[in-house]
User: Fold this.
Amino acid sequence: MNKTNIVLIGMPSCGKSVTGVILAKILNKQYIDADLLIQEKTGRGLQDIINNDGIDAFKKIEEDVLLSIDVTNCVIATGGSAVYYDSAMRHLSEEGVVIYIDVPLPDIKKRLSNIKTRGVAMGKGQTLDDLYALRKPLYEKYAEITVDSNNKNTMEDTVEKMVAKLLGSGK
Assistant:
């Protein structure tokens, strides 16, 4: 079976949403942003859910939304915490090639200035360093393709790398 979807994973502000839109245009696919699906389902912003219902409630909603995605020929930008849910990642990878956008932690720190308002799934007292250390092995576990990106790359550079790897060689 040929997988028709592309599933983007990676840290917050690695560029999943921006590159996802560009990639969808280049490959003539639809675009879906899982964070926007959460907002649509709940009628609330991600940070509002985290602040008022707690991180566990947010994670349950996120997992349910990811498991409900049933599409073909789409680029799907997941939230940075999608890799916490093995069942959801297995579900998404059944119909999609999983691409990990790997951005070094110092570059993530430069990009992520709005961490308190962005809706990042972090526990109380958890730092960005903690999050990176926890998530990086999970991104690597689920990735079928890894694309290195950093602050020297434009989003177009990152998309070109994705297309080259999708059409050419593997990981």
In short: The CA atoms of residues 37 and 65 lie 7 Å apart. Strands lie at 5-9, 30-33, 74-77, 96-102, 145-148.
